[in-house]
Specification:
The chain is 30% helix and 17% strand. By secondary structure, it is α/β, with parallel strands linked by helices. The strands form five sheets. A five-stranded parallel sheet has the order 5-4-3-6-7. It is globular, with a radius of gyration of 22 Å.
């Protein structure tokens, strides 16, 4: 009798199998969760559920809390003006105190957007399972971890048990090979991928990003790609750890030290997809095909190269036409028209997608010696207190101020209309965030998603432009 050879394991398989506590026949698995991030928006109801049942948090040392979504980005020393925001932040403070959870609240040197502080503090490490009541938890997958967003009832489940019922997703690999063109950065890569496969093209999959173009990226750039894997419907995105990953983690506040570091490093070096591993789906992309990207519609899949025209109606699938026309009507744009040269009113550089120090350096390098366009309001929001401090140390705040921009205080800010930083109705904002849904940045606000470089061009010129025209 011949024995069939079993194919190798993917990176996802290796991490998943190691974290299964119990397999339920014909059902989900009980998955152990290494790190649970919480913030003020999706945790209050979970804590209320625990308190009603008289349950304490099972492993408080594996929970990391911060305030980010509802915090103001100016005058953080003053009481929060918006009542709901204030109540949610106060509830987080109270719940963390009662359950012995470390909280990086307003005024703490580690406070910031949850998906920015995890990596920069060394909490995020390869081979982990990580969850948060926030869809963009997929950011942490850049380290070779399984990281995904969960709902409020699941937040309660993890707080109570440090485990979660999960069905294993299908597996997809997206290979991006070759050298990137001038002016093309990681945000352009992910916007290009989403435009190619659509905002639902990876639904039901965990996506591994691979290929020479991905390996050439810094950790912060990789985080941007994994952050937006959720925007094509993926359960999570991940990238195999390598020397770039290990060098980034080494020496950070909560990273392993000494002998423990050597032990972990040996373990992390086994985290790669075996050569004979099989994926349910594979996609191959040539890096040379990617140009600076911009969205024109009301989902992140509605994106084009900045020099291209918005698709004409006859280029759109018949089933998609009603949504397409509604989307363009909301955006005040015409099918077949050019995005380049479109006037913008606001520029927002921030969010868990693009608010790290490399993003701010990129913007400061571009705007140095230039001035903001008249009539454009520019909000630069660092992702954390540590990013803010580093920007001040490097003089980035002064470069921005000279250009007419202001470096605000850390928070989710204008990524979502949940705090004081809202884009007014009808106004156009070019944004480095991750979502351009109707009303996402404020009621009837209109959002173009782009890279920090493309956003910086708009800040200086007042319109959508091609960064390649300004680079030496």
């Amino acid at each position: 009798m011949s024995v069939q050879n079993k194919s190798g394991l993917t990176l996802f398989d290796k991490i998943w199998e190691k974290h299964i506590v119990q397999k339920i026949e014909d059902g989900p698995s009980v998955l152990y969760i290494d790190t649970h991030f919480i913030h003020e928006v999706t945790s209050p109801q979970a804590f209320t559920g625990l308190n009603k049942r008289g349950i304490k948090v099972f492993r408080p040392k594996q929970v990391v809390a911060t305030a980010d979504h509802n915090v103001p980005t100016l005058n953080q020393h003053l009481p929060i003006k918006e009542e709901l925001s204030r109540l949610q932040v106060e509830a987080l403070i109270k719940n963390c105190a009662e359950h012995g959870i470390e909280l990086y609240g307003l005024g703490h040197p580690y406070q910031g957007i949850v998906h920015v502080i995890g990596p920069e503090l060394g909490v995020t490490q390869p081979g982990m399972t990580m969850v948060c009541g926030d869809s963009h938890t997929s950011t942490h997958g850049a380290f070779g971890s399984i990281a995904f967003g969960i709902g409020t009832s699941e937040v309660e489940m993890v707080l109570a048990t440090q485990c979660l019922l999960q069905s294993k997703p299908k597996l997809m690999r997206i290979n991006v090979e070759g050298e990137l063109n001038k002016g093309v950065v990681s945000k352009d890569i992910i916007l290009y991928i989403i435009s190619l496969i659509s905002a639902s093209g990876a639904t039901g999959y965990a996506v591994e990003f691979a290929g020479s173009a991905i390996r050439s990226l810094s950790m912060e750039a990789r985080m941007t790609i994994c952050n937006m894997s959720i925007e094509m419907g993926a359960r999570c995105g991940l990238i195999a750890p390598d020397e770039t990953t290990f060098n980034y983690v080494n020496g950070r506040q909560f990273a392993p030290k000494g002998e423990e570091w050597n032990k972990k490093l040996a373990e992390w070096k086994t985290l790669f997809t075996d050569a004979d591993a099989v994926f349910d789906k594979e996609i191959h992309i040539n890096a040379k095909d990617i140009e600076p990207m911009i969205t024109y519609g009301t989902n992140p899949g509605m994106g084009i190269g900045v020099t291209k025209n918005i698709p004409a109606l006859n280029e759109v699938d018949a089933k998609e036409k009603p949504y397409y026309e509604k989307s363009l009507q909301y955006m005040g744009l015409e099918a077949g028209s050019l995005m380049k040269g479109k006037k913008v009113d606001y520029v927002f550089i921030g969010s868990c997608t693009n608010s790290r120090i490399e993003d701010l350096r990129m913007v400061a390098d571009f705007v140095k010696g230039k001035k903001k366009a008249d009539g454009v309001e520019v909000w630069i929001v660092p992702g954390s207190k540590q990013v803010e401090a580093q920007a001040q140390k490097e003089g980035i705040d002064k470069v921005l101020a000279d250009a007419g921009f202001m470096l605000r205080q850390p928070g989710c800010s204008a990524c979502l209309g949940m705090n004081e930083d809202k884009i007014p109705a009808g106004k156009y904002c070019i944004s480095t965030s991750n979502r351009n849904f109707e009303g996402r940045q404020g009621p009837n606000a209109r959002t173009f998603l782009a890279s920090p470089l493309t956003a910086a061009v708009a800040a200086i010129t007042g319109e959508v432009g091609d960064v390649r025209e300004y680079l030496n």
